[in-house]
Design brief:
The chain is of the alpha+beta class and 125 residues long. It has helices at 4-8, 27-44, 74-85, 88-91, 95-99, 114-123; strands at residues 13-22, 48-54, 64-71, 102-112. The protein has one domain: 2-Layer Sandwich (Alpha-Beta Plaits). Strands 2-3-1-4 form a 4-stranded antiparallel β-sheet, sandwiched between helices.
């Protein structure tokens, strides 16, 4: 059987890295909510989560966290994010528990190989 990853082998993917500067003292709850509620919801709605967690370094003493996701294209990224963030499952689910702990966030988007994404996924488990 051919899998999604087999079909994509060699084709570049779009990876989004979102970093979150969190409100003081909220890192543990944020990461727990992200891993236990948000990631399963993202995956159930078809988004590929590469990794998430707390930063190993507190820049300027701030609690920080990250979320990495992979997409087939920039258009797929836009469509999947619109669908996810517009869904009742997000709005009525973990949204408030996530956004209430965020002070600010920053997103970068880059193109990488499927092999790089797989290496990142295996390193985060």
């Amino acid at each position: 059987m051919t899998t999604y990853r087999d079909k994509r082998k060699g084709a570049p993917l779009i990876v989004e890295i979102r970093t979150y500067r969190l409100k003081p003292g909220t890192s543990g709850d944020f990461v727990r909510t992200m891993r236990e509620q948000c990631v399963p919801l993202l995956e159930r709605l078809g988004l590929r989560v590469v990794s998430c967690g707390a930063s190993l370094v507190a820049e300027d003493g701030h609690d920080e966290a990250f979320l990495m996701r992979a997409f087939e294209s920039l258009d797929a990224r836009r469509e999947q994010e619109e669908s996810f963030y517009g869904s009742d499952a997000w709005r009525n689910g973990p949204r408030e528990a996530i956004v209430s702990r965020i002070d600010s966030y920053h997103t970068i988007v880059l193109e990488v190989s499927e092999e790089t994404v797989q290496a990142l996924e295996s390193g985060s488990r």
